[in-house]
Amino acid sequence: MVWRKTNKADETIVRRGYSTDEFNAEWKWLLDKGYYCADINTYTKGSSRKWDGIFKKTNKKSGMYRNYDQDGFNAKWKEMSDAGYRLIDIETYMDGSTRKWAGLFLEMGGGHALHRNLSQQQMHDKWEEYGKKGLKLIDIETYGNNLWAGVWIAGDDVAMYRNYETTAFRDKRRELNDKGWRLIDVDTYMSGSTRKWSGLWEKSSVAENYIYGYDFCEWLTNYHDKYDDSGYELIDLETY
User: Fold this and answer.
1) Range of the domain at 32
2) How far apart are CA 216 and CA 224, in angstroms?
């Protein structure tokens, strides 16, 4: 989990462990209260699919679309992009034998791109290419047999480091933090029997906090409430 000291923690709401229908109902309710969903995660608990989300205050329009197949999501992305929205978060998961996609959209303009089913090298090449064109990589996902997806919007280039084991990723995060880089996205996954981590960093002088490996009760009691009270806004949440 990643927090940033924005002093806007009171404008952030976290929801965890909701069923698909429950999450949709909560999303609609919070939408009516002036919030948009900025980050989602999905996973299975037993035989049930669960959803987590970070919601933030906004005066912009937003959208959430889930359970699309590859082509269906591509069509929805094009439709929303043409309507003046930008994809800000993507999630992929298996529904039986079918790969599904979910995405969050926010009303904004500027350049944008979405690429999926990239090899590790192709992902690196796209990050490098778009960074030179004024596009900012804001979300990455890895899935399947080492395939990658990336979401870009207009903005300054970011640093990307991937495939680090847990301790090495912690050390890389500390190193980059000391050099003025702050995490904006974390992705974690299994490579064989080893847990791996990848992250995106942007240049910023704003303080951050980062933790991993805690269950929900520990996370809420020992960290989230404390950081929230200190003005730290939760910006990224991973469940694994």
Assistant:
1) 2-236
2) 10
CB 75 within 8 A of CB 122: no
**How would you label 43-80 residue by residue, b for 16+ Cβ within 10 Å and e otherwise?**
eeeeeebbbbbbbbeeeeebbbbbebeeeebeebbeeb
Q: What pLDDT sits at residue 240?
A: 81
Residue 194's identity, in one-letter code, is: T
**pTM score, whole prediction:** 0.94
The count of domains in the chain is 1
Tens-place pLDDT, residues 82-132: 999 999 999 999 999 999 999 999 999 999 999 999 999 999 999 999 999
- Extract the tokens encoding 7: 């002093």
One-letter amino acid for residue 112 of the chain: H
Cβ neighbors of 192 (< 8 A, separation 6 or more) are: none
Buried b (16+ CB within 10 A) or exposed e, 88-109: bbbbbbeeeeebbbbbbbbbee
